[in-house]
Amino acid sequence: MSRNDGERVLDVREVDGPPFDEISTALTDLEDGERLRLIAPFEPRPLYEVLEERGFEYDPERTDDGRFEVLIADSLE
After folding, report:
1. At what angle do helices 20-29 and 45-53 cross, to 10 degrees?
2. Which end of the chain has fewer surrounding CB within 10 Å, N or C?
């Protein structure tokens, strides 16, 4: 996972198997005010309910090359 001024990036496109554990760990490790940019080969719809239950907001975007980038934070304002 890389880090860039208040934003961590987690690319799960090469994870062998379901990436839920990696995502959950990254969310737990976020510091106050940090955001997580999740890069995935598909839209991670099952994750959205979990994010909502944990109090996170998210903003998914499909890129021109077909991957999904989901910005996740306590607040996206």
Report:
1. 30
2. C
Cα(59)–Cα(43) distance, rounded to whole angstroms?
A: 11
Tokens read off for 7: 């934003």
Spatial CA neighbour of 27 closest among 74, 75, 77: 74
pLDDT one digit per residue (tens) for the chain, 77 residues: 555 678 999 999 998 888 999 999 999 999 888 999 999 999 999 999 999 999 999 999 999 999 999 999 988 87
Does the pTM of the predicted model rise above 0.85?
yes
* Strands, sheet with 7-11, edge to edge from the N-terminal-most edge strand: 2-4, 7-11, 35-40, 68-73, 57-62
Q: Would you say 3 and 31 are in contact if contact means Cβ atoms under 8 Å apart?
A: no
